């Protein structure tokens, strides 16, 4: 898009429903995940692990597929179909009246999110002017961060009041409301003409620095975020901190990440924060946060680590997606966004797995330092000077 109209007024009205779609997938995933342990009675950690993994597993497999479909038929119908599917999966759990159906419902929600999440990202890129991609993706990431933050809290409130039926029913209603909002305000965005793509062409595009660099940065930042949310409370408890303080630290992390993204997007659009140095710097901040949490005892280490991880995540996310949008042919945005989201999901799963394995073999501090070392390697690789304009 060549015009330079800012994302305000009518254009903002078109994009805000897409932000809400990002909120739906984040809120839906985390509001349920936070209550699954109590729902299963902590009877089987294997069962709990499977229920937690089935949502992300569906997304990992299906996001590139639905992204390619969005390129073929246009992202708007894929967005609508995904939101409708999310509502149907959520309502289906309530109507089934069978507690054992939660796994099937989670899979259905994950498959639906795999459709509307990359479609929403492609629509943000298509509807926002090129000169406002940083701000647009900063807002999208902030709304997702809000969903991650509010999900466990509001999910717990809904479960306390009316059990999982009320939570799933609320999610169904939320998805329908966002669908109606999008249907009213998101314009039709027709698919663009595409040249025939061979498997070799796809491989070249997904192994080019313009894709690998931001995707690796997004995966690393998501790994740090997931580890911060999951393991900072454990580190705090090991230092004698209660759940109130450790919960506050997680909230500070999530709030910092959410608040940073629109600001970083504005800096990027103004030409004051280049993509590649910014992504490398954001990951470096996350590395520092992990090391502080590992080495500095007490509440100081936990809070400083939380702020640094949230800061780094908030820098990387809008820059990563804006860089992807800028380096991707518009007719392939859906496929690219879907594939990049897979990288984020792998970071979301791989970071905690690495830290958990190292903590089980040695100490939690070593686990946090181990992830910091991996992210530092990414900083070195990502921060190398690009060899071409597309990189």
UniProtKB/TrEMBL annotation:
Signal peptide: none annotated. It is found in: Cell membrane. Residues 1-387 form the Major facilitator superfamily (MFS) profile domain. GO terms for molecular function: transmembrane transporter activity. Its main location: membrane. Pfam families: MFS_1. It is a multi-pass membrane protein. Keywords: Cell membrane, Membrane, Transmembrane, Transmembrane helix, Transport. GO terms for cellular component: plasma membrane. The chain crosses the membrane at residues 12-33, 39-58, 78-97, 103-125, 146-164, 170-190, 211-232, 244-264, 276-296, 302-326, 353-382. PANTHER family: INTEGRAL MEMBRANE TRANSPORT PROTEIN, RESISTANCE PROTEIN MDTM, PUTATIVE-RELATED-RELATED. This is MFS family permease. It comes from Saccharopolyspora phatthalungensis. The lineage of its organism: Bacteria, Bacillati, Actinomycetota, Actinomycetes, Pseudonocardiales.
